Amino acid sequence: MNTAAEQTVSAKLNKSANAFAEAKCYIPGGVNSPVRSFRGVGGTPPFIARAAGNRLFDIDGNEYIDYVLSWGPMILGHSHPEVNRALLAAVERGVSYGAPTLLETELAKLVNRLVPSMELVRMVNSGTEATMSALRLARAYTKRNKIVKFVGCYHGHHDSLLVKAGSGVATFGLPDSPGVPDSIASTTITVAFNHFEQLQEVFARQGEDIAAVIIEPVPGNMGMVLPQPGYLQQVRELTARYGALLIFDEVMSGFRVALGGAQALFNIQPDLTCLGKVIGGGLPVGAYGGRREIMEQISPAGPVYQAGTLSGNPLAMTAGITTLRIIAEDPDFYPTLANKTESLTTGIRDQAEKAGFNLQCHHLGAMFGLFFSDQPVIDYDSAKLSDSTAFNIFFHSMLEQGIYLAPSQFEAGFMSAAHSEADIQQTIAASAKAFAKLADMRC
Ligand SMILES: Cc1ncc(COP(=O)(O)O)c(C=O)c1O
Ligand SMILES: NCC(=O)CCC(=O)O
User: Fold this and answer.
1) Of 235, 256, 293, 345, which is most buried with the most CB atoms under 10 A?
2) What is the domain class of 81-329 according to CATH?
3) Which atom of ligand 1 lies nearest, measured to the CA of 286?
């Protein structure tokens, strides 16, 4: 699909291409999550053999500076020695018990300390489970059925929220997924992010029926988009006025835009919060939590059922505890990450400008987004206006030069503690070459 850049990459990915072909014989599309397939940008995804620090190593012997970081979790970098040591020791004690452990309380306490709005915390195995369970709880607590979500926000792949979703759904240009019953989709109302008047209108018409508004406070699944000043506060006030719960989906922004997540940064207290990614330190963990009185509705404290054979798994808790302790201990951890992210995005934007391209660069904490657009990007409609062909060519040129970005314009990028100044300069230099290639192709 893509050009010379892609063919050069493919030549370096012979083993991966064969592995991908074989995987497709046994796994739908050859992947266990669609966003890994490179369907949006074309070409062969490198099959990864191992990872260390900020590097990925594929089975063809190529090495990449990684800005995907397993889609966000690896904030300390891959194979962090302290996390690995803790995990190896945990393996020796047995990998799962299906019975209470001290580790679960320890992680819940840590989360409560870092995100105080989460007075009670329930561990699950993924971000999807966290948002799915939070919606059920919100519906039960308010005795209302309708949910409001924002176009281009992604909250996982369960029925209620697979409506006008971002991430892979946006990348592949899918309308709402087949298999989601109309009866469920029709309980989900969608409005544009950053357009408070739309939310106001919805509440004016149906406010008494709305159980919850679920929002990515800093969306990262339509590319990375920033909330307009005061917007999240307005959403908070409106939901409170109508007795609807405000659910912050901080699966991506949690422990990433700041230690306490977007809610700490913008000083907003949601009723419920969903976490995932960083909280598991690379193992499968999600969590939801919030006001005690609401969370006490969850079984067995209350009647709302939610369960999990592997929930609170000792390995996952160990990786999460070790990661959160490390990031919480060092007061310079987030300022350093934020500076690195800013210097990366500023450097890339400067190179784009030199080559005559308009690039919208967003960053907050250790999260960033790049749009090939001369318009401000504030919502899904403006994100869609960006030039995806230019992005695809840029993406493949960067990959060829050993820089691993998310394979879609509708995804965010991530910085880790393991990225050095030299890596950032190498990435900026690679971007200069990628823009030069794009400029050549334009002529
Ligand atoms: C904001 C947000 N919520 C929920 C999810 C779903 O998490 P998971 O993929 O762990 O199910 C994701 C990522 O996939 C996400 O970015
Ligand atoms: N931004 C989208 C994700 O993080 C999802 C990853 C996946 O579904 O594999």
Assistant:
1) 256
2) alpha beta
3) 10
